[in-house]
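<tokenise_the_fold>
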Amino acid sequence: MRVLLEVNKLWVRYGKINALSGVSLAVREGELTTLLGANGAGKSTLLKTVSGLLRPHGGEVLYLGQRIDGRPPESVVKAGVSQCPEGRKVFPRQTVYENLKLGAYTRSDDEVEKDIQAFFEKFPPLADRNHPAGHLSGGEQQMLVICRALMSRPKLLLLDEPSMGLAPFVVREVFKIVQDIRRQGVTVLLVEQNAKMALKVADRGYILEVGRVVAEDLAKNLLASETVQRSYLGG
């Protein structure tokens, strides 16, 4: 199974503070890889650097063997990498339809409307295309931002805290969506504070502490680890 995304010795700073200190990881095509760690560990910083929102101070990001670090976000999206941001960032005054259409802004093919209709059929809560996105429930907004990210037809989806602030029953639905995305052939890099649930659905996991990778293994091995249980899973 080929490596889709490779991060090599990545350094990112905010002023004089190192947010990432030589982080390396690999995401294999077709897998769901999760990135775990406490607040401030550098998880979101890593996703933002991969997607072009931040420029690294050292190291490199390779996508399908080509360097993408430092490229503008729209170039990264065109290459096949799409990010679903933390915090359910819908465009609240725009309709559901307009939010989805914005997700396809890099596309020039004639199947955009077909894809939008497919999402309406798959997720009935979004079917009212003229409904303002800001009026949706938290779970529906999360559903919308995931669908919006998929509108660019990415090979790699970066998911940043998709369960944050959602009720437990909604969290379960969101994780079902994430698993379905992976089954459809989209590779997923998932940042998630619900470590136990993330490891249950992932193939492989990395744990960050203060900008450094301190553990990496198959997700099932991390889930069974007494150290991981004690430090991250409340065991």
